[in-house]
Design goal:
The protein has 17 helices and no strands. The chain is mostly helical. It holds the Pfam family MatE.
């Protein structure tokens, strides 16, 4: 497959951003489609109990995806700066160290999770009634988490290497394979939740192996390289990985926000509305990663351009990319919000029969849930920008605001103040408050610069 060759320092910024954004967006949506297709087949093949069971496991998956994003963002930013300064060997070392790090951490964690499936399922919030379904999904999908990490980190590097279309195809192939296997395992074979987990595991493994093959043999510049085994080399590797993780920490917090959203939402819905409420919320949680991936696609499309030109000292190009990214975020957020407000029945109907109790709860709640989508995508774009220019503190602070400091109290107090509607409004309220904080921070910085 032909690789793109994009000059990050000289091509016109709008054209360069478009060349990254379109394939990155398609690839990101394909990643979300893997989970959504699971939900569609589980919803129609198993029912709302199956959806609730998968939704209980998803926060754990989000934590691992956050680990991959954290390492991928940090590695990509550091490698971009090294490339802009002509240090190709150092950039390759950072790529290799990042991939080895996620492989070791995920391998050990996956083994522990599979060794204690029932305690892990209960820790995630599973009821005794849903426990068999949750453990089925956990045992059949968790071994594929290492491949998920290869894909998460690898796609950043593939795009930085000048091949965004190849990165897109890694995700698209996995998504298409998941659709076929989901249908086969759930309907003709009747494997239920286990079949959905096994199908997703195979598709994720396929995407991860493609990414690993590219980095090992097909990369234009950023190929994997041997690491020295001396004590000094180990210390340097740990230092580099620590720096990468620090830069990318807000990306981990971004995934942790989705995990916290699902965790707190599951508990709030089951408390106020029972298992039908959790089933309704699970449908919303299948769509939330799509919105997240739109914001992530904007941030990741801008990141290599911003980081490269930041390292080269081209501040005008950095500002131009940020302006285009913000405009794209607002337009995409408005489009997604319109779909949720206009026809929630069609969106819910993909997963559940519209006549069911869970479906009716979801249809009524979707317009409220969508109220914060513009701010959701804008916040991800701004946090990605701060990461790209190595401003770790504001990136981390805003990620903490939207994911924990604002989100948790909103889930606790809004249902008390507004009833069931308040549960749906918890996420929008958190995102709107975070956007207000970013505007205040940016305005304060501009006033200081003028003085």
């Amino acid at each position: 497959m032909e690789k793109d060759a994009l000059d990050l320092g000289t091509l016109k910024v709008p054209s360069l951003f478009r060349k990254y954004f379109v394939p990155t967006l398609l690839g990101m949506l394909s990643i979300s489609a893997v989970t959504a297709v699971d939900g569609i087949f589980v919803g129609h093949g198993v029912g709302s109990d199956g959806l609730a069971a998968v939704n209980i496991y998803v926060p754990l998956l989000m934590v691992f995806q956050g680990l991959g994003l954290m390492t991928g963002v940090g590695c990509s930013v550091v490698a971009s700066v090294h490339l802009s300064r002509g240090k190709l060997k150092t950039a390759r070392l950072n790529v290799t160290q990042a991939l080895l790090f996620v492989t070791l951490v995920t391998g050990v964690a996956s083994a522990l999770i599979c060794a204690f499936p029932r305690p892990v399922a209960r820790l995630l919030g599973s009821s005794e009634y849903l426990l068999p379904l949750v453990t089925d999904y956990l045992l059949w999908f968790t071994p594929a988490l290492t491949f998920q990490m290869w894909s998460a980190v690898g796609l950043f590097i593939i795009r930085l290497d000048g091949a965004p279309r190849l990165a897109m195809w890694c995700s698209v192939i996995a998504a298409l394979l998941n659709i076929v296997l989901d249908w086969l395992f759930i309907f003709p074979l009747g494997w239920g939740v286990m079949g959905a987990a096994f199908a997703t595991a195979i598709s994720v493994a396929t995407g991860g192996l493609i990414a690993l093959w590219y980095l090992a043999a097909g990369a234009r510049s950023l190929r994997l390289c041997p690491l020295k085994r001396s004590a000094k080399s180990l210390r340097l590797s740990l230092r580099n990985i620590g720096y990468q993780c620090r830069i990318g920490s807000s990306a981990l917090l971004g995934e942790a926000t989705l995990a916290m959203l699902m965790f707190m939402g599951n508990r709030a819905f089951i408390r106020y509305m029972g298992e039908n409420g959790v089933g309704a919320f699970s449908v919303a949680c299948y769509y939330a990663p799509f919105v997240f991936m739109v914001g992530n696609a904007i941030a990741q499309s801008a990141q290599p351009i911003v980081s490269y030109n930041f390292g080269a000292g081209n501040r005008e190009r950095v500002s131009a990319v940020f302006r285009i990214a913000l405009l794209t975020a607002v337009l995409c957020g408005a489009a997604v919000t319109t779909a949720f407000v206009w026809r929630p029945d069609l969106l819910v109907g993909l997963f559940l029969s519209p006549d069911g109790a869970a479906a009716q709860i979801a249809i009524e709640g979707f317009p409220w849930f969508a109220a914060g989508f513009v701010c959701f995508i804008v916040n991800l774009t701004c946090i990605g920008y701060f990461q790209s220019v190595e401003r770790v503190r504001p990136a981390t602070a805003f990620a903490l605001l939207r994911g924990f400091i604002f989100l948790v109290p909103c889930f606790v107090f809004l249902p008390v103040l507004l009833g069931n509607k308040g549960i749906w409004l918890a996420m929008p309220a958190s995102e709107i408050l975070t956007t207000a904080a970013i505007v205040l921070f940016y305005g304060s910085g501009r006033r200081k610069a003028v003085r």
